[in-house]
TrEMBL record:
One of its GO terms (molecular function) is methionyl-tRNA formyltransferase activity. Coiled coil: none annotated. It comes from the Bacteria. Residues 64-157 form the Formyl transferase N-terminal domain. This is Methionyl-tRNA formyltransferase. The keyword Transferase applies. GO terms for cellular component: cytosol.
Length: 195
């Protein structure tokens, strides 16, 4: 399976490392910033790096030829319809909430702010609307009393995201398709960014 990874920062690097250990071919890494740590890690591993022409949008020409799946890992860019069409199975991303709850930026912060006793993560199909595509995989965890958003991310949600991504990749390898369950809009929350 050939992957184009779109992302940034620490979660982008940990996703890159997980993919390298998971018997897939990382054809290309796409970043918004050439100096990002994901770009440096990809170059060090001998993986081609492409810098997005528009930091808010990934287009088909930035996706590696013969890509089976696009994976986003800490990317705030929209993956254009043409880019999704360039990959056999389209694209998936990880969102650190139980979608459709806490769509948008600052999902972990909103989990804490709302006092949610349970948090979770979702692998979802990339779509026109941010964080609104069909669910491919989802799991949950408890939120500890007094836990900060950063604590929750580092303790539970980042590792959960890597596990769910690996599970979905394994599913595709066996079934030659992405699992898909439509999000139930009656449970949707879209909070504004906390910044």
């Amino acid at each position: 399976m050939r992957i184009t990874l779109v992302g940034s920062r620490h979660f982008g690097v940990t996703t890159l490392n997980m993919l390298r250990e998971h018997s897939v071919s990382i054809a290309r890494v796409v970043v918004a910033d050439a100096e990002d740590r994901l770009a440096a890690a990809a170059r060090a591993a001998g993986i081609e790096v492409v810098v997005q022409a528009n930091p808010k949008l990934v287009v088909a020409s930035e996706i590696a030829p013969d890509t089976d799946l696009i994976i986003t890992a800490h990317s705030h860019a929209r993956i254009g319809k043409d880019a999704l069409a360039a990959a056999t199975y389209g694209g998936i991303g990880y969102h650190p909430s139980l979608l459709p709850r806490h769509r948008g930026k600052a999902a972990v912060e909103w989990t804490i702010k709302e006092g949610d006793p349970i948090a979770g993560g979702t692998i979802y199909h990339l779509a026109d609307r941010m964080d609104a595509g069909a669910i491919a995989a989802q799991d949950w965890c408890f939120v500890k009393k007094g836990e900060t958003a950063r604590d929750l991310w580092e303790r539970a949600l980042a590792p959960l995201g890597l596990k769910l991504l690996a599970d979905v990749i394994d599913y595709i390898k066996v079934h030659k398709a992405l699992p898909s369950k439509v999000q139930d809009e009656q449970f949707s929350t879209s909070a504004p960014s906390l910044s």
